[in-house]
Design a protein that fits this description.
The chain is mainly alpha-helical. It has a domain of 85 residues. 68% of the residues lie in helices and 0% in strands. The chain has five helices and no strands. The N and C termini lie far apart (116 Å).
C-alpha cells in the first residue's frame, strides 16, 4: 500500500487548507474520515468472508476424511462380524452333527408358554380369617341396599 509519513500528511493538509478553505475544511475532513472508516469496515468484512470460506473448505475436507474413516471402520467391523458368524455356523454344524448351518442367526424356537393354572380360589381360601378381616377383604357378596342397611347408625332403622 501507499506509505504516508508525517511530512507527506502535513503537505496534503496544507494544500487542502489552501484549496478548500478554512470554513469547509472541517466538514470535508469529517466526510473523508467517515468514508475511510466505511472502506476499512468493508475491507474487514471481505477479509472475514474470505476467512469463513477458507474455514468452510477446511471443515468440508475434514468431514470427507472423517466419513472415509467411518466407512473404513464400518467395513472392518462388518468383515469381523461376518467371519465370526461363519465360524459360529461351522462350529454349530460340527457340534450338531447334522450338517445344518446356523443361517438364521436365531436360536431354536422355545416351546410356547403355558399358564400353570394355579387355583387362586384355593390360595385365597388358605388365608387366615383374622387376616382377611384386618385387611378388609369381603367374604360374602352383598347388595348395595343390604350394605347400607347393615352400616346404618342404630335408631334410624325403619
Amino acid at each position: 500500500m501507499l506509505d504516508f509519513g508525517f511530512d507527506k500528511l502535513a503537505l496534503i493538509g496544507a494544500v487542502a487548507l489552501i484549496v478548500i478553505g478554512p470554513e469547509k475544511l472541517p466538514r470535508v475532513a469529517r466526510t473523508v474520515g467517515t468514508l475511510l472508516g466505511k472502506a476499512q469496515r468493508y475491507v474487514a468484512d471481505v477479509k472475514a468472508e474470505v476467512n469463513r470460506s477458507i474455514e468452510l473448505e477446511e471443515l468440508q475436507k475434514m468431514k470427507t476424511q472423517f466419513q472415509t474413516a467411518v466407512n473404513d471402520v464400518e467395513q472392518s467391523v462388518r468383515q469381523e462380524v461376518d467371519s465370526a458368524t461363519q465360524a459360529l455356523n461351522q462350529t454349530w454344524g460340527d457340534v450338531s452333527g447334522e450338517g445344518a448351518s446356523y443361517e438364521s442367526g436365531l436360536p431354536a424356537p422355545q416351546p410356547e408358554y403355558r399358564h400353570p393354572k394355579k387355583n387362586w380360589r384355593l390360595k385365597r381360601g388358605a388365608t387366615p380369617l383374622w387376616f382377611k378381616q384386618k385387611a378388609g377383604v369381603r367374604r360374602h357378596t352383598q347388595s348395595g341396599a343390604a350394605r347400607v342397611a347393615r352400616f346404618r347408625p342404630p335408631g334410624t332403622r325403619t
